[in-house]
Amino acid sequence: MSSSYENLDFQRKVNDALTAVERILAIEKKPLIAGEVEHTYGAKYELVNSVSNVAIIAYMNALEKIGLDADVLKAIDDSTPTTLCFDASTTCKFLEKKVVDVPLGRSHEETVETKSTGLLGNTKTKRVSKVVQHIEEWHYKVETSWCVSIYSAADVAQKRVLKSRVGSTTLVTQSKEMPLPEHNDHEPIELSLTWLMQQIDKTPQLTSNFRVNVEENKTKTPRRNEATQNAIDFADHLKGWCGSVSVFMSKLELDILHRHNPAKNEPNAKISLRKTCNLGEKIFNPVLPLMEEGEDVQKADGTGIENKSVLRLQSSNSEGFVLSPNDITKLLNEHVESMAAALAKVENAFPPDAQDNIVAVSEATLSLLTVHLPHLCNNFLDSMAYVENMMEEQLTAAIGKRITADDLDTFVKFHNARLLCQVPQPFSHAVRRPQHTPVGLVSIESSDDEHKCIHTHTRVVANSTLKMPLNAATVLELTGKQYLHGWLNHRFERHHNDYQLVGRARQFSAYILVIGTMTGPNSIEPKDAIIVQNKDEVMIPLLLNELPTAKEFKDAIKSLSPEQQSFARAYRSMQLQSSVFGCVVIQIKPQLEALLGLPRNALDKEMKLTQHLMELFTEYQVPSDLLSYSGRSEGVALEDKLDNVRTNVKSVTDVIEGEKKKQMEMAKAKTDMAIEHKLQNKFAECSYEPQSMMMSCEEACYDDSSDYGGSSQASSRRSRAAPRMMARTAMALAAPPPMSIAADGSRKMSGHRSLAKTVPTVASYSAKVVHAPQQQQPTRTEVVTDFKCKTDLSSDIGTSIAKSDVVDFTLLPQLLDAAVEKTDEASALRSTIIKTGQSWLRNRQENLLSGLKLKRLLADELKLEKIKAFDLLDALSRSGSLAIESSELHVIVAVTHCFEKDIIGTIIQDNINPIQKLESSTLLFASAIHGVDARDVIKDESELSRLEGQNPLLLKDSVRIDDEDELTRLASC
Q1: How many folded domains does the chain comprise?
Q2: Which residue segment(s) compose the domain that 294 sits in?
Q3: 924-956: per-residue pLDDT in tens?
Q4: Which residues, including other chains, have CB under 8 Å from residue 519's CB and lie 6 or more apart?
C-alpha cells in the first residue's frame, strides 16, 4: 500500500464527488463508493478494469487538447515504442539603452524679480519646477519557443508536432547585465506512451481495452498484478512529465516576466498563470471507484448515449456491480464538457497567440492541462490503493481486530496441537535426576518482556557416547540422554525477534552448561561453558544467521564456472553442517559421587561438602585422588564413607591453610625487614636535634609504609600515630644525645640500634596493613578451540552413517535442503545458524542477605568462566578417563520460514495464506526430525485428506533423517 495514501481523505473526496455524479446520472441511480456495496471478490477485478479504462479515456481527453487527436492515434504504430516529447528554447538579444525621466512627485517653487522703469516698478513672478530622476534602461528582446511532439522508436527527426508556439517580448531592466543567457536549449522532457497506445484498440473504433488477466500466474490480487502495476507506473510517469512541463511554464513568469522592471509602471503588464491552477482543480474528475447495488444494473440502462470522448469504453461481461458503460460514458462526457468550459475561460483571460507575448492562450492551455492531468493520475492511484485497503478493512472486520505476527504465533501453536501426532513442546527442560527435585532449568526464550519459550519438535535419540574435547589431550565421554530439537521459526519482512538461552539454578545447587557446534554424530566442539549455581540466572543472547534458500543458492550459481560452483557447494555444505547447535547440561553432584567412590545420592544433603569440593577443584585444581574415598571394603556404611571424604577434604584444606599462613608470615617478615632497612637509611640522614630527628624518622617510617600498604591509607595512619609520635619524641629528648663527635671531627651514630628498638610499633603497625601477595594459581587446564584430538573420531563418524540407531545431526540441514528442493510449498525455508553473543547477563546473589544483582559478562570474563568450567570438568572426569553419565545433550536444528512482507502485506498484497505455508513447512520439518513420512505425523484422517489435495507432492515423497541411502549420499558429498 502506498505510504502517501490517506484513506480517509480519499473517501471524503469521493463522497464530495458523488453529489456531481448523482446530478449527471439518472435520478433512480445511486452509485456508492465500492466499500459500501456488498460485492464478490471477482467484482474487485471488474472495478479495477473499469477505473483503469476510465482513467485511460480521461488521459486521452486531456491529451487531445494538446493535439493527440483521433487522426494521430490511428497513424501511430503501436508495435514500436512511442514517445511524447516537450522541447523548449530561450533567446535573449540586446536592443538599446534609454534614459527615462521619472517624476519624483516633488516640485520646487522659485520667485523671480524683474526690474522695470515704468510707473509700476519692479515685478515679481513665481516659477514652479518639477523634480525628475534620470533612470537608465536596458531593453532586451526575449524569445521563447516550445513544441509538443510525438515520435516512434528512435526516429526523432521524423517527429510529429502536436502543438507549438513562438512568443517574444521586450524585457526592460535597470542593469546593464544580461538577465538571461543569449541562447538556452532546455533538456527535452519525454514520456513513453507505449503502454498507453497498447491499451487502445483501433478497430473498428478507438476503444480502451484494459483488462487484468486473472489466469496469469503472476496475478495475485486485483491490485497486485502485472497489468495494474503497468497502469500505476504509467500514471507515475505521466505525473512526472506534467510536473516538469509545469515547472517550465512557471519559469516563464519567474525568469522573464517577473524580471521586467521598467522605470515607469506599465498597467496590466504581468499575466499570472496561477489562474490555470484554480481552473484545473475545478474540472470534473471521472476516475472514481464506484459501484451500484443490485445484480441487474447493466440491463437497466438504455443505449444510444452520445460519446464525446476521443475513445470509447469497450463493453464487457461484468458481474453487474460496477457502473454500466452508459453511466460511465455520461461521466466521461461531463469530463469533456467541464474541461472545455475551463479552456474557454482561459481563452478569455489570456491574450491570443497572435500577439507579441510570452504568455498567451497556448501557454495557459498547456499549463491548465498539466495541472489537471496529475489530478486524474492521483485519483487513479488512490483508487487502486483504495481497493487494496478495502480488502484489509474487510479482513479486519471479519476477524474483529488487526492481526499481528503474535496472533499468528498463537494460532500456529493451536493449529499444530490439532494437526500433529507429536505436538511441538516448549524448549524448557528441568535439570534433574529421576525422583529428585530439579536443580535448575534450561530454556530458550524471547528477549522481550513476555519471555515466551520457543516450541520445538522434540525427538529422543538413542543414547550413544558423545565425545567432547576439553583440550588437545583431554576428551570427555558423555553417556547421558540425547535429544533432537527442530525449531521452525518464522519472520515477516525484515523484523527479527531476539532470543536468549537461559540457565537458572536453585539455591545450593549447581550444574555446568556447555554450548557448542555438533561436528559429527557423536562429537561436539565446545565454544562456551559456564557453571550455573546458587540461584544464578544466566542469559545468553542467541544470534540467528539465515542462509539463502536452496532455490536462491541454485539460482545464484547458475552463471558461475564449474570450479566456482564446486567451491560454492562445498562452502554451503560446510555452512549447513556447522548450523547444528548443541547444548550440553552436566550435573555436578552425581558425577562427584562417581568420582569420589560414593554411592548414588550420597551428596544429596551434603551442601557444605559439595561447595568445598567444587572450590578445591576450580580454585586449587586439587587432584581427585586426594579427596576420594580411600577405603576398599564394600560393607562400609554411607556415613563412614562420607566421613572419610570429609577427612580427606579437611586434610587438603589444612595443607592449603597452612601454606596460606606460611606465606603470610613470610610476607610479614619480609615487610618488617624492608621497613627496618629503610629506617636505618633514614636515621643516617636525620639531623642532630632530637626533636627534628624523631620527627624526620617518624615521617620516614610512614612515608615508606606507602610502599607496602598503599598511599591511599597514609594520611589515616599518620593521624592515628600522632600520640605515639609525641611520646617517642619526649623519650628522645630525655635520652642522652645519640650522636658523638669523633676526634677527626666527624659525626657517627652511637645508638641507632637501640633507637630503632624504641619504635617497634611502627614496624608492627606496618606489618598489619601489608597484604600478602596473591597466591599463585597452579597452571590451569589449557583450553583450545581449534583442537586435534588424539582419539581418532573420523572413523566413528564415517561408520555411524550406516547405523540406524545413531543419528548424524550434521547431515540434517542438508537433508532438509534436499527435501525443500522437491516442493515449492516450503521454498521459503532458510537454514539458520545459531551462535551465542559476546555479551552475556548474569543475575547473582552474592550472599544470602543480599539481593540479586545483574552483571554483564564480557569476552574476558566469559573466557575465565569457560576456564573455570573446564577445570571442573577435567577434575570430574579424571582428565577424560571417567565417563560422565549424568548429562543431557540437546541438539537444535533451526530453520526460518521467511515472508517478504509483514503479515497484512502477505495476506492482502501477496494473496498468501501464511497458515497454509507454515503448515507445509511444519509437515516437512516434523517428518525430517521424527524420521517418519510426512503423512505419519498427521493426527486426523480428515486433515490428511485435506492436505493431500493441497500438497500431494509433499505427502508423497518424504525424506527421513534415518533414510540410509540419502544419508550415505549426503555424507559422500
Answers
A1: 3
A2: 7-67+260-397
A3: 899 889 888 888 889 888 888 888 777 766 666
A4: 525, 793, 810
